[in-house]
Design goal:
757 residues, single chain, alpha+beta, 17 helices
Length: 757
């Protein structure tokens, strides 16, 4: 389903090994703290109160009616969020995590380190606590990262402490809500330390980014375009296992429902290759953010249908999300994850649909640091989301990135007009948060089209003609384009629709969304079990758990294990791969990512008809870098000019290799035996390093001069490969070993085999 929303110390062992790294980090932190120095004693001079602009009173939605003041005795829970002392130092650290030239390269943090390194000092935290107490409030326990202080008090106490008035409202749809009428105020002495106050209004809750299609709908009678075990789309050409070894559905799924089953989605995006290698996500925990309840019986029914037993845990945040079946969003998220990564553990974080509840999920997830991935199918229009909310979330997403945790978020279901909803059209261009955040991977939506030969191609999702949504995307107005995204090696990353800001943004441009995409069109949607029945669901909130599952399979893969990879699915790594292999990814036969170059996400029911944003070759703000190709092509071939060539590996292999901590080079040191009879095939052992002990991950080429005589399979460990050299006439040949996307290089006398008469 779709959703809208905006945007310590190094490990002791690492410090001992890398004293220079420790010194640089400590100096950066001390300088940052000095820049925001305030009195750290028990007393703080209040000074005149000043308003917190980032927490300005929200605009009232159209059709909102004032009901009166909030009852003084109403219990309220708010969160005071604290500012990062030195954002520049943190940005440098995060950029360095995936930069081999940086002293911070792959020095990921563990729980408890972010606060001492990058959060406010204990003295600064105490100053804010004292200011709250002086205002008559009782602050709760400070978060371990030192970024938030919870406060529970009556409405009258909140109004007095922050100088606000709280009113009740009835919104156009009948829902009741409340909001502050002015920005909260705090003493000037601590104002630089406070980011904002969350929980003073609930007028604009996050929305699920998805759409369901009942089985009786005429649209549901469209034939499913891909089937389990089917080949790839016409544009990918990737080899697939003849039989999908992943979870298979039962016959209970209605034949009248054309929603795709998990095995069909897995076949289309190449997950079946991971299953064939025994990778089902085992050992990986996936978090999923939910602002509504679901029936555990629905998930049980889905698992029984697929004969899987995925472990699902429910974690309540701020009291949870209530009870009942919900809208089906939570069921969609959980079941998609279970169907695609059946041996992963799924942790469902449930909270009330408030900005405090949403923040609470992110805080609990990043503080625990037990889930490698977080799937978020909820969000809000960035243009209407307060800076206090987006900046508070941003600090947590930065902490997640520093801990090697990946967040995927739905980019929205209303095209380039993210403020529009099914109930209210809004022609304003806007992206959706938190998908727009620089340290979140925003997920857009695709659909299916057909070539003149009736082959399937993936295109931009845009159902403007029938009003059922379009993939979200566009330009953020709150975030600059991060350094990792501003890599001009990626075709069209800077384009005619990019928005410049040379003064405020180091990159010179604003952040662009989405980052990636996957099937979102509900009319070629996902079959899920919700509310006691099978339904067909789509939206970018369906595409998001697909990507979260892919991240889990990648992290659990033999490739990442062999390379001892770190940070394999961080946004920095994703864009580094797109830049490094751009000539292959955006070629006629793509690798790693399937470039979507057809359609646009101008969702005309919103009232906007300006044509933004079109899908193009390379990056675009309709589908991002492209859709996943998790498994690579298996074919190797010699070029017509006699030079050796090879297809690159799939996305899993590329990400694992890019983030490897072991030696990335492939090297041949000897061939044994190195001589054999001409005209006869012979088994030989090639010794060296950088090989992979993974089935189908290695190959060898027999080369004479610059001509490829043959390409053969190789059975390898990390240090040796067994191959069969083909029968050839008397000559001396070179043997090159291929591991994932690398050939052993350069050619030397050590890799030669001699055919003798």
């Amino acid at each position: 389903m779709t959703a809208t929303a905006l945007d310590g110390d190094m490990p002791l062992r690492s410090l001992r090994r890398r004293p220079l790294v420790a010194l640089l980090i400590v100096l950066a932190v001390l300088l940052g703290l000095a820049a925001m120095a305030v009195p750290s004693g028990a007393a703080v001079a209040e000074g005149p109160p000043v308003p917190l602009a980032a927490s300005a009173a929200p605009p009232l939605p159209a059709g909102t009616a004032l009901l009166g003041a909030v009852s003084p005795g109403t219990t309220m829970a708010v969160t005071v969020t604290l500012a990062l002392p030195d954002q520049a130092a943190l940005t440098t650290f995060l950029n360095g995590l995936t930069d081999p030239a940086s002293p911070y390269y792959q020095r990921f943090l563990v729980p408890g380190q972010f606060g001492p390194m990058f959060g406010p000092s204990l003295g600064q935290v105490a100053a804010v606590e004292n200011a709250l107490r002086a205002a008559g409030l009782s602050p709760g326990p400070v978060a371990p990262d030192r970024l938030s202080i919870p406060v529970t008090a009556t409405a009258s106490a909140i109004e007095h402490a922050f100088g606000v008035t709280l009113d009740r409202y009835r919104l156009a749809g009948g829902r009741l809500g409340f909001a502050d009428t002015t920005a909260p105020k705090i003493p000037a002495a601590v104002a630089p330390l406070v980011q904002g106050v969350l929980g003073l209004n609930d007028l604009d809750p996050a929305q699920p980014e998805g759409d369901s299609v009942p089985a009786s709908s005429p649209a549901a009678t469209r034939p499913a375009v891909i089937r389990a075990g089917a080949g790839p789309t016409a544009t990918t050409g990737a080899a697939r296992p003849a039989v999908n070894p992943g979870p298979q559905p039962c016959g209970a799924i209605s034949d009248g429902l054309s929603g795709l089953t998990a095995d069909a989605i897995a076949a289309h995006y190449g997950l079946a290759q991971r299953y064939a290698e025994g990778d089902y996500g085992q050992g990986i925990r996936i978090g999923v953010a939910e602002l509504e309840p679901n029936l555990t019986s629905d998930v049980t029914a889905y698992e029984q249908c697929y004969r899987i037993s995925t472990k699902v845990n429910y974690i309540k945040v701020d009291g949870g999300a209530g009870s009942g079946a919900g809208s089906g969003e939570a069921a969609l998220d959980i079941e998609t994850l279970a169907g695609l990564a059946p041996k992963a553990t799924i942790d469902v974080y449930q909270a009330p649909n408030t900005n405090g509840g949403f923040y609470g999920i992110f805080k609990k997830w990043v503080t625990a640091d037990t889930d490698k991935v977080l799937s978020v199918s909820w969000g809000s229009c960035e243009a209407d989301t307060s800076a206090a909310t987006t900046k508070a979330q941003e600090a947590l997403f930065e902490q997640a990135d520093a801990q090697d945790q990946t967040v995927f978020a739905a980019a929205g279901d209303n095209g380039s007009t993210g403020c529009s909803t099914n109930a209210t059209a809004n022609a304003r261009l806007s992206v959706v948060a938190p998908a727009s955040d620089p340290y979140v991977i925003g997920v857009g939506g695709t659909s299916f089209g057909f070539t003149s030969n009736n082959d399937i191609v993936e295109i931009t999702w845009n159902d403007s003609g029938i009003g059922s949504g379009a993939g979200g995307g566009g330009v953020s107005t709150q975030w600059c384009m991060p350094a990792y995204q501003h890599d001009t090696a990626i075709p069209a990353i800077v384009n005619g629709h990019s928005v410049k800001d040379k003064k405020s943004c180091a990159s010179g441009y604003y952040r662009e969304v989405p980052d990636v995409s996957a099937l979102g069109d509900p009319f070629y949607g996902y079959a899920v079990f919700a509310g006691g029945q099978w339904i067909q669901v789509g939206g970018t909130s369906a595409a998001t758990p697909v990507w979260a599952s892919i991240a889990a399979l990648t992290d659990a893969s033999a490739f990442c294990s062999a390379y001892r990879s770190k940070g394999a699915f961080l946004p920095q790594t994703l864009y580094a791969v797109a830049a490094k292999y751009h000539s292959y990814i955006y070629a006629a036969s793509p690798q790693g990512l399937n470039d979507i170059a057809n359609g646009d996400n101008d969702y005309t029911p919103s009232g906007y008809t300006g044509g933004l944003y079109p899908a193009t070759r390379g990056y675009d703000m309709a589908t991002g870098l492209g859709a996943p190709m998790l498994s690579g092509l298996t074919g190797l071939y010699g070029g017509g000019n006699g030079e050796w060539h090879t297809y690159l590996a799939g996305l899993t292999q590329l990400l694992c290799h890019q983030s490897a901590t072991t030696a990335k080079a492939v090297k041949v040191t000897s061939v044994s035996p190195d001589t054999g009879p001409a005209g006869k095939a012979r088994k030989v052992v090639v010794h060296g390093s950088g090989f992979l002990g993974i089935a189908s991950a290695n190959a060898a080429q027999i080369i004479s001069g610059r001509k490829v005589l043959a390409t053969v399979g190789a059975s390898c460990s990390a240090t040796k490969c067994t191959i069969t050299v083909p029968a050839e006439s008397a000559r001396t040949v070179d043997i090159k070993i291929f591991a994932v996307s690398l050939w052993s290089s350069p050619l030397t006398a050590k890799d030669r085999y001699r055919y003798v008469k």
